[in-house]
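Posting for a labmate who doesn't have an account.
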Amino acid sequence: MLVAAYGITQFLLSPLTGSLSDRYGRKTFILAGLVIFNAAKLLFALGDVLWMLYAKSITFKYAMLFMLVLVMTFGLANYEAVLGLYVTTRFQFTAQHIAIILNHRSDNRRWHASIACRENGIKLYLSKR
């Protein structure tokens, strides 16, 4: 179910995201994707029950939909770079999913999520300059 969350989210929300990005601009939606990505990281850091993992997974996939699909569609990056970023994040979060299911060291998970949120916050700040 966790693996299928990306496909289901992309199937259901791609048309809506595409039409709204045409109306309001792609930069707005890419920045919104960073904000949603940070929310997903915080949800992962604070959650310690299984339903929060599902909520985080769907939120993260929607953020990836905002950022990667719009970047690829409008040609802001080459396909190989975007695909490499996608594969890297998929394998990284699969390991995190296994860790939360096995209830493995919640301190490490919170530390990792806080570092990622700070990193994405810095990227968001620098993109507005």
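Reply:
Got it, the structure tokens are right above this. The longest helix spans residues 50-73.
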